[in-house]
Amino acid sequence: PEFLEVYKQRPSRINTCGQNMMQAFITYALARLLEPEVVIENGVNAGGSSYILRSGAPHARAYHIDPRDKPICDKTMKRWVNETNAKYLTGENFVDFHKYDWDKEGIPKDRTLVLFDTHVNDWKDTIDTAREGFRWVFVDDNYPGHE
GO CC terms for this protein (predicted)? Predict the structure, then answer.
């Protein structure tokens, strides 16, 4: 019931190229169960998963990374942004996940949940992220039917 209320209140009913209900549930459940101090979302699109992560881990510090400053699939959508305890490395402020100095930020890598949703081959990123000391890493790439 808790997740369903969050999902009903999501910022956009249509999340083109974004998480569907089942993927959103997994993201929310991980955030709630792990209770991370930090969440890092690599691949923001319209911010649907940002909203789900924030709802699941409301007290976590959040980092949102995307080379684009607008949604990739539906240009008419406005990206959901919540700057409370969050840093956006998007558009002009983009820094690649592996080039960002997480140690300088004081990130507790053993208490950080990293989501890769970049629509590229995340296998190497996942391995590299684990080697860099991050404990909780997951990939959620849901491709549109034509890809």
Answer: endomembrane system
